[in-house]
Amino acid sequence: MSSDKLKVNMNEYLPLRDVVFNILRKAIITGEFAPGERLMEIALADRLGVSRTPVREAIRKLELEGLVVMIPRKGAEVARITEKDLRDVLDVRCALEELGASLAAGRIDEEGKKSLKQALVAFEEAVESGDFAEIADKDMDFHDVIFEIVNNPRMTVIVNNLRELIYRYRLEYVKDVTYHNTLVKEHRQIMEAIFAGDGDRARKIMKGHIYNQEITVIKNINKK
């Protein structure tokens, strides 16, 4: 990636090591740092205008989160996406998304229908734009609206805890342009099932939707 995108906001009310950690974490999750890319302390410190110490401390925290791995005689690099990690995350996501779609079908009101329709249109426009980051964001927004319709704060907390891990994989599958039409079609089908109040159908379509994403990402990471 171009490290010129990295910028420290010195006004943030956080220790410098945490500011650097948040910047690097976001860069990894959003794909600005590619899986397998080396993280050079000196280069990062120069780009961020800080000493090596907060960069080193941030990298250690990223290692604890599993986003960075230390390679003997090479140093730190962005953790690669593996099938095991992907399946672990999507197992949990699938269970939550299936439940969310099913519950939303029984709880949606006119305001919810309006919000979900708007989210679908925004997603379709993002797909037309071809901007991968925008597609990933609008895909996330569409699914978030479903959980908003469910209106279960405890479920929302769990979903939010997974959000950033899911986003990393979400970016991987939206990069596959051959899958875009399928994504749009599945979103429409999910919305239609929820609008119809058919929880069982919404759950089944959502399950297939997440499974297709898993297969797409696995196919793509195995090519690398």
Which short descriptors sum up this protein?
elongated; mainly alpha; 9 helices; two-stranded antiparallel sheet
In short:
Helices cover 71% and strands 4% of the residues.
Helical amount among residues, as a percent range?
Answer: over 70%
- The count of DSSP E runs of length 2 or more, i.e. the number of strands, is 2
**Strand line-up across the major sheet:** 1-2
Individual helix count:
9
Average pLDDT metric? 90
Report the radius of gyration as a whole number of Å. 19 Å
Termini Cα gap: 17 Å
Largest sheet: 2 strands, antiparallel
Shape: elongated
* Unreliable residue stretches: none
Question: What structural class do you assign from the helix and strand content?
Answer: mainly alpha
Order of helices and strands: HHHEEHHHHHH
Indicate the proportion of strand residues. Answer: under 5%
What does this structure look like?
- It is a single chain.
- The protein has 224 residues and is mostly helical.
- 71% of the residues lie in helices and 4% in strands.
- It is built from 9 helices and 2 strands.
- The protein has helices at 16-29, 41-48, 52-64, 83-107, 110-129, 132-150, 153-174, 180-195, 199-221; strands at 68-71, 75-78.
- The chain has a two-stranded antiparallel sheet with strand order 1-2.
- Helix 5 (110-129) runs antiparallel to helix 8, helix 6 packs antiparallel against helix 7 and helix 7 (153-174) packs across helix 9 (199-221).
- The longest helix has 25 residues, at 83-107.
- The protein is elongated and about 55 Å long.
- It starts with 15 loop residues before the first helix and ends with a helix.
